[in-house]
Amino acid sequence: xxxxxxxxxxxxxxxxxxxxxxxxxxxxxxxxxxxxxxxxxxxxxxxxxxxxxxxxxxxxxxxxxxxxxxxxxxxxxxxxxxxxxxxxxxxxxxxxxxxxxxxxxxxxxxxxxxxxxxxxxxxxxxxxxxxxxxxxxxxxxxxxxxxxxxxxxxxxxxxxxxxxxxxxxxxxxxxxxxxxxxxxxxxxxxxxxxxxxxxxxxxxxxxxxxxxxxxxxxxxxxxxxxxxxxxxxxxxxxxxxxxxxxxxxxxxxxxxxxxxxxxxxxxxxxxxxxxxxxxxxxxxxxxxxxxxxxxxxxxxxxxxxxxxxxxxxxxxxxxxxxxxxxxxxxxxxxxxxx
Length: 338
Description:
The protein is an alpha+beta fold and about 350 residues long. The protein has helices spanning about 5-15, 15-25, 35-45, 115-120, 125-140, 150-160, 195-200, 210-230, 240-250, 260-265, 295-305, and strands at about 65-70, 80-85, 90-95, 145-150, 165-170, 170-175, 180-185, 190, 250, 275, 280-285, 290-295, 320-325, 325-330. Helices cover about 35% and strands about 25% of the residues.
């Protein structure tokens, strides 16, 4: 395929940042990967050795999953958490955002999913491994690969692409010196450079729903990227963008099998790239604000958009905290007193 034609296919796939993540994240998963919370942690340890302590569960042909997280600049947590499914048979990508304040079943004092990355070293894992393990308990399956992206890389990528045109819906003004965060955007259609785009995607103080409003804005930004590059028919400075990603992504995947996955991802048309947010409710528990997953809608979304298995997942496969009759409920043995 000629160079210009290849870039055109990439643009047609849309969501350039998402697809570049696929480029550096994925390698082909071994078939017959186990499922369910009772073996999800063991699966991470078994993945490289091929050992299996439980009967394999049949995977859907051509379906692969991975985790994308973006670090914050403060206390080592993750601001953005996305589980992504690539369906090569139907040429579709589904990305589901998990709110950073989602409550998880853990004995930690503050039981938020975004703390898993910083808690990794205390549990004998890397931050990315710990985050992936806790996300797997929420979804009922271990992802085929993970990547944690440094926010400075996000800035450099947007700048390398020449910026992104975007309709900023309102004036955004917020500063937090502790996170080196200064957001000052005017409302209106404008070309955002990397620092401005980062501010747009991190801003949340102006939304009544805080983090949920930010997630919606991140989805809108990715869609704007798709529209812009489809119109151009190419991605400016694509080689430089690839170099930035190579130097800035923490991943458990080798580069050896990337080419096959990239070729499959690039076959997905823009209309088949969809974004979702885990269904949830806001609550205060023990003096801390949390996002609590709504069990049945969450399970429905998992099976519709994320499940890599031939059979649907059930609540018994998950380790989720939810609200039932005004009290906290658990799909697994509680790790703390409700």
